[in-house]
Design brief:
Belongs to the glycerophosphoryl diester phosphodiesterase family. This protein has 9 helices and 2 strands. By secondary structure, it is an all-alpha fold.
């Protein structure tokens, strides 16, 4: 009697067979969807043409090359404006009060501006990250005209608020300078960590460009070979090493009040002993005063009810 074939396969065997029969789902489909999403968000083109991706690395028109620095400038200006406004948090009530005196309508305009500056910084940083990912994938950059208009508006808006700060609120820059002195060590360590993480992708990209240059040497003249090799080394390697060198030498010019020698520290602040909670227990006040005197308090403070 012929035996029937067992049509029930174990789950592990099914999974292995599915992975073996359809590797394109794991290696091509997901990658293609990711690239399509990035390109769609950056250039509003949800269909990637094959000729958009060059085998010789990333390529973009001269307009995109001229506008990409504008994107970087807008990112830096929006982040700086957000940092200045965050450091001015103690003046939010005074800012709202001045607007109330001028308009007669009370609202938390400081929080509105904080949210607005945060949106600008997030928008420009997102476009910058998407553009970097497209360059990493070797896809031609094409920023949609809507994004270009918004980027120009971001630059104009930040310039307007910076003009207001320089004209009517100059003391804010003193606060920003003190804040940068306090946070300088942390910013320096974070920047070093980011540059170390970026060193591996930059190294791999330099190796890739060197290999591409060697392949293309046979199709170039002697002058073009030297110019191509020199331009690749200067455009990628030199700026990275210059930034890294500046970060390593930055502690020589940093002055932070958080980092001082023990002999140069100021005197300890005086503290007062405050009364306890007499409504819970009358003896709390006496215990609080005894503890304050034990720890060397400068004075005692209490309330007298008449």
């Amino acid at each position: 009697m012929p035996m029937k074939a067992n049509r029930i396969e174990p789950r592990s065997q099914k999974t292995k067979r599915w992975k073996k029969d359809s590797p394109w789902i794991l290696h091509i489909f997901n990658h293609k969807c990711c690239v399509t999403s990035i390109t769609g968000c950056y250039s509003c083109q949800w269909k990637i043409k094959q000729e958009k991706k060059s085998k010789r690395g990333p390529y973009c028109s001269w307009r995109e090359r001229l506008f990409y620095p504008c994107l970087v400038i807008s990112f830096c200006m929006s982040v700086l404006l957000l940092f200045v406004w965050i450091e001015s948090s103690n003046e939010y009530f005074g800012f709202d009060w001045v607007i109330f005196l001028g308009t007669g309508f009370w609202f938390f305009w400081s929080i509105v501006l904080l949210s607005f500056f945060g949106i600008l910084a997030a928008y420009t940083s997102l476009l910058l990250v998407l553009g970097s990912l497209l360059l990493w994938e070797g896809i031609e950059l094409y920023l949609h005209w809507c994004h270009k208009i918004l980027i120009l508006l971001v630059i104009l808006t930040c310039s307007f608020f910076f003009w207001i700060l320089f004209t009517y609120w100059k003391d804010r820059w003193l606060t920003v300078g003190l804040s940068l002195q306090v946070f300088a060590p942390y910013i320096h360590l974070s920047s070093i960590s980011v540059m170390v993480m970026l060193s591996w992708p930059v190294a791999f990209y330099l190796i890739y460009l060197e290999g591409e240059g060697r392949i293309r040497r046979y199709q170039m003249t002697c002058y073009e070979r030297k110019r191509n090799k020199r331009s690749l080394q200067v455009a990628i390697g030199v700026p990275f090493f210059l930034i890294l060198l500046c970060l390593y030498l930055l502690p020589l010019g940093i002055y932070s009040p958080c980092i001082q020698e023990k002999d140069k520290l100021g005197p300890k602040p005086n503290f007062f002993g405050h009364r306890g909670a007499p409504m819970l227990g009358p003896e709390n006040t006496m215990m609080a005063f005894e503890k304050a005197v034990e720890h060397g308090a400068f004075g005692l403070e209490s309330d007298v009810q008449m």
